[in-house]
Design brief:
This protein is of the alpha/beta class. The chain has one domain (30-148): Ribosomal Protein S5, domain 2, CATH 3.30.230. It has helices at residues 8-18, 56-66, 94-110, 136-148, and strands spanning 29-37, 42-52, 78-82, 119-127, 133-134.
Length: 151
């Protein structure tokens, strides 16, 4: 049984953009999606930022761990960070969002875009409703598509 990291229909919408080099001069970029289905009692909103990683400790560790002296190759790495105000979107919702972003990072890591910079995906905003079923997994996928539509 094949397991898709992202559905084929989603991949086809952004496949050409995954192959492009990310122009860091255009960063930060934001992708956002809100899903509200009254009949299904589903709600979620997620906003994701793509920017250059600025944590010097993380950058140093990645450069030490991923630099290949034999091939003299550059690292191509992406990081993840949760930066949402707990009042807007509690960290308990991260388990819907983080796996989708990490799956997306796996896909990007396959395509060597030759980025000299380490880039970070941050969840920077969102919303939830207690009484309804969360739609944050799908919101995350669609927010990533929105973000990559801008590249």
């Amino acid at each position: 049984m094949d397991i898709e990291i992202i559905p084929r229909s989603v991949y086809s919408k952004i496949s050409d953009k995954l192959l492009k080099k990310i122009d860091v001069s255009k960063l930060p970029l934001f992708g956002e999606k809100e899903i509200y289905k009254i009949t299904a009692e589903r709600y979620g909103r997620v906003k994701i930022k793509l920017d250059v990683e600025n944590d010097l400790d993380i950058i140093k560790k990645i450069r030490e761990d991923y630099y290949d002296d034999i091939n003299d190759s550059k690292y191509n790495h992406y990081t993840y960070k949760w930066e949402v105000d707990e009042q807007k979107l509690p960290k308990a919702y991260e388990h819907y969002i983080k796996p989708e972003i990490l799956n997306f990072i796996k896909i990007l890591s396959v395509f060597n875009n030759n980025n000299a910079e380490i880039l970070r995906f941050s969840v920077v905003d969102g919303d939830f409703k207690d009484s309804e079923r969360p739609a944050h997994t799908l919101c995350t996928i669609l927010a990533l598509i929105d973000l990559f539509d801008q590249i």
